[in-house]
Write a structure and sequence with these properties.
With 133 residues, the chain is mostly helical. It has three helices and no strands. Helix 1 crosses helix 2 and helix 2 packs across helix 3. The longest helix is centred in the C-terminal third of the chain and has 64 residues.
Length: 133
């Protein structure tokens, strides 16, 4: 049962990484497209995608900035969504590493418990033998 539980948890963690990456890509694509439509200084979709990424990641290199009120308002939305989703991606990737450590720790605890149970069984058997005399 523990193996089944561990496989299910590992599957859910990996699926979470994939879903968070897909969501972040969709938000960045939408942001890039939005900047391309709203800002006259964004001439190509690639420029829009770059502006969406630097805005969502709050890097802001300054090579491209929103220049209209509409694109600035859109930038606020991209920042809020980007912070949430990019932190979700970071957390999902970190969960992969933590999950491996937790699995190793659980196995060690399980081995220790089994040793303790064997020792207790041996003590009970010895006590039964002594009482049986």
């Amino acid at each position: 049962m523990t193996t089944r539980h561990q496989l299910r948890r590992r599957f859910l963690v990996r699926r979470g990484v994939i879903y968070s990456l897909i969501i972040s890509m969709l938000i960045l694509l939408g942001g890039g497209f939005g900047f391309w439509l709203l800002d006259p200084h964004v001439h190509t979709l690639a420029d829009g995608l770059w502006l969406a990424f630097t805005t969502a990641a709050t890097v802001g290199y300054g090579d491209m900035v929103p220049s209209t009120h509409a694109s600035r308002a859109f930038a606020v939305i991209v920042v809020l969504l980007g912070l949430a989703v990019l932190s979700l991606v970071t957390a999902s990737v970190a969960a992969l590493f933590v999950e491996k450590d937790v699995h190793t720790e659980e196995r060690a605890i399980e081995r220790e418990l089994m040793q303790e149970i064997r020792a207790v069984r041996a003590e009970v058997a010895a006590l039964r033998r002594e009482l049986g005399r």
